[in-house]
Amino acid sequence: MPKYMYECENCHAVHATHHSMAESREKEKCEKCEKGILFKKLSNISFSVDKQQYSETRPGAIVDSTILDLHDELQSEKEKLKNNLWKEEGLENE
């Protein structure tokens, strides 16, 4: 059964209880002050992230990879153009 949290509108005491989804303790009297009416609180939601998986699939990883590939390609093209220029000038790269 799910765990539900209820808070007293008068004393703000928090009560945790397990019951089916069809049941409710809303509008019941507070067990602590016996004056206030209980209302349901939103439960805390928690999750964890696998850091290694996240680092491999983070949105910027694809961009970083593409930039590195293009950088290598650009360096290769620059070298080819430089060598062609040297050949045209008759000053071959030594």
Descriptive account of the structure:
- The protein is an alpha+beta fold and 94 residues long.
- The chain folds into two domains: 3-41, no CATH class; 59-89.
- Helix content is 40%, strand content 16%.
- It contains two helices and three strands, in the order E-E-E-H-H.
- The chain has helices spanning 51-57, 59-89; strands at 3-8, 14-18, 38-41.
- The chain has a three-stranded antiparallel sheet, with no helix packed on it.
- It is rod-shaped and about 100 Å long.
- The mean pLDDT is 80.
Task: Compose a concise summary of this entry.
The chain is an alpha+beta fold and 94 residues long. It contains two helices and three strands; from the N terminus they run E-E-E-H-H.
How many angstroms separate the termini?
Answer: 79 Å
Shape: rod-shaped
Please list the strands of the largest sheet in the order they lie side by side: 2-1-3
Largest sheet: 3 strands, antiparallel
* Structural class label: alpha+beta
Order of helices and strands: EEEHH
User: Can you tell me the residue ranges where pLDDT is under 50 for at least 5 consecutive residues?
Assistant: none
Give the proportion of residues in helices. Answer: 40-55%
Mean pLDDT over the full residue set:
80
Query: How much strand?
Result: 15-25%
